[in-house]
Design brief:
Layout: E1 4-5, H1 8-14, E2 20-26, E3 30-36, E4 43-50, H2 54-67, E5 70-77, H3 87-99, E6 106-110, H4 114-124, H5 129-153
Parallel strand pairs: 1-6, 2-5, 5-6
Antiparallel strand pairs: 2-3, 3-4
Protein name: Putative pre-16S rRNA nuclease
Domain YqgF/RNase H-like: 19-118
Keywords: Cytoplasm, Hydrolase, Nuclease, Ribosome biogenesis
């Protein structure tokens, strides 16, 4: 049975020996993917998946996670600035529930500033609009995952 939680301690307990994590920035048109090492030290952008039929997306995601030996999933939870839920929050929660049967622990992680931070970094790097479009989702997933692993390692 899979664990679906926003509590990092619960998620951490589900993975007592660490293991590779995948970070997901779930959007309406794309899903940004990032991976971290088994020791949870650094997150790296992987790629961006164009969304289609959910069943097909789930099969592809499951295959990628199996290939990468993923032990847990971190999904960005887009909250409003005041911390309240938004329609996008509900969509991310639904996505998490729909992949829970893959059997991996799932952590919902506050991603309020991820896209803005990544976009700002890309603008400072003078990336073109087209290049920003190519990179923003997987970089946001990496930003989300890095925040989560930093949070998971705090106090351990």
């Amino acid at each position: 049975m899979s664990i679906l939680t926003a509590d990092r301690a619960v998620f951490r307990e589900a993975l007592p020996h660490g293991g590779r994590l995948i970070g997901l920035d779930v959007g309406t048109k794309t899903i940004g993917l990032a991976l971290c090492d088994a020791g949870w030290s650094i997150a790296s952008p992987a790629h961006t998946v164009s969304r289609g039929k959910f069943t097909k997306d789930k099969v592809a995601l499951a295959a990628f996670m199996e290939q990468q030996l993923v032990k847990g999933v971190v999904i960005g939870l887009p909250l409003n600035l005041d911390g309240s839920e938004s329609p996008r929050s509900q969509a991310s929660r639904a996505f998490a529930r729909n992949i829970a049967d893959l059997g991996l622990p799932i952590l919902l992680w506050d991603e309020r500033w991820s896209t803005q931070a990544v976009t700002r970094t890309l603008l400072e790097a003078d990336a073109s609009r087209a290049r920003r479009g190519e990179l923003v989702d997987k970089l946001a997933a990496s930003y989300i995952l890095q925040g989560a692993i930093d949070g998971l390692m705090a106090g351990f």
